[in-house]
Each structure stands twice: as structure tokens, then as C-alpha cells.
Write a structure and sequence with these properties.
Low-confidence stretches: none
Strand content: under 5%
Number of strands: 0
Largest sheet: none
Distance between the termini: 17 Å
Helix content: over 70%
Order of helices and strands: HHHH
Number of helices: 4
Amino acid sequence: MNPVLGAVAAVVVAGAVFAVSARDGRIAVVGLAATLVFAPLIGTPLDAPLGLAASLTGGILAAYLLWIAVRGGGMTGGSRLGWPSFGSMGSRASGGA
């Protein structure tokens, strides 16, 4: 596996964990934005730049719409389990130890 691809996958998983476990809506949107922006880099071959650009643009626009929604400082219920449990579940789901 390419080390850069592994780093991008780690960023996607970390963004998803932050998005799920954050209590502040703005932090959840930042985690979701990282996931939406970096996830196309994993699934799209790098020799298709137009499709990759469209996916990245879609992720950025989706994150911006969510940012507009929580711009006033919206609070979420968060998770009672916390980020360590979601990180552990993400690690298990991706085949890690």
C-alpha cells in the first residue's frame, strides 16, 4: 500500500471520528469536511483528474452548506461513548487490530 494513501485514509477516519463524537456543531462540521474532501482521494484513480476535481468540489460545497447551518454556534448532543470508542470501532471496521 502506498504510504500517502494510508495517511489519507487515516485523515478520513480521524475526520469521521471527530464528526461523530463532537459536541460542538462547528467541530463536527470540520471533521465532516475533512472526511468529504479527502475521501475521494482514496476511491478515485489519480489519472482521472476531472472526476477527482468534481468530487473534491462537491465535498467542499457540502461542507460549506453545513458550515452555514451551524455558523450561529449550534450545539449537538454529541456521543455519550466518546471519541475513543468510535476510533476503536473505525479501526476494527477498516481491518486494523
